[in-house]
Design brief:
mainly alpha
Length: about 200
């Protein structure tokens, strides 16, 4: 009987976690994602460095993003995006230090619901949220959220902001070449600049 209270608390916490995360995932199936944990974390980091926080982000629907950009990020980041269920086990088996095996679905789950620092705890939550978005979202929705939330430079998030600040255009008007330049530095967008490739 002594353990009934702690067990009830744990049960209620788990129930709250599953219900709240399910609601969040379902809501984001329909509602634009205007703020992510990464955006907040980067802004706080800039303040601690004595810099003015830079935060450029503008949500655009999928039909206002150049069709070249999804193709470019699939070619660069996740060749089997259209066919896997969120996890590319072929790439996981081949994964090396220089290149991870994170799919676009996994990166979307991390960007929208989690924090950037890698740990076993975050990886566990990443698996859970990846499974959830693959269950409740379409592939088009996953790609839309990914292209709107991905970090594409210092204080620059999403295709629209990147198009404006790097190429002085809009996400809808990105050419095939500009889309390829956007996709190339995605593994490390703070180190490599798509507007000034090395």
């Amino acid at each position: 009987m002594k353990f009934s209270n702690p067990l009830r608390i744990i049960r209620n916490l788990l129930l709250f976690f599953f219900v709240s995360t399910t609601v969040m995932v379902v809501v984001y199936r329909f509602v634009p994602v205007y703020v992510t944990p990464l955006m907040v974390i980067r802004s706080v980091q800039q303040v601690f460095k004595g810099e003015s926080p830079a935060w450029h982000h503008e949500w655009v629907p999928f039909d206002r993003i150049s069709p070249h950009l999804p193709m470019a990020v699939i070619a660069s980041e996740d060749n089997r995006f259209a066919t896997h269920n969120g996890f590319d086990f072929i790439e996981i088996q081949k994964a090396k230090r220089k290149r991870g095996a994170s799919t676009i679905s996994q990166q979307t789950a991390k960007n929208v619901f989690l924090w950037p620092q890698s740990s076993w705890l975050r990886k566990g939550f990443e698996v859970y949220f990846t499974w959830m978005i693959e269950l409740f979202w379409s592939k088009e929705r996953i790609m839309t959220v990914y292209l709107n939330s991905i970090e594409m430079g210092k204080g620059i998030y999403g295709a629209q902001a990147a198009a404006r600040y790097k190429f002085h255009t809009t996400a809808a008007k990105l050419s095939a070449g500009q889309s390829a330049l956007h996709a190339a530095p995605l593994p490390n967008p703070l180190r490599f600049d798509s507007a000034h490739p090395s």
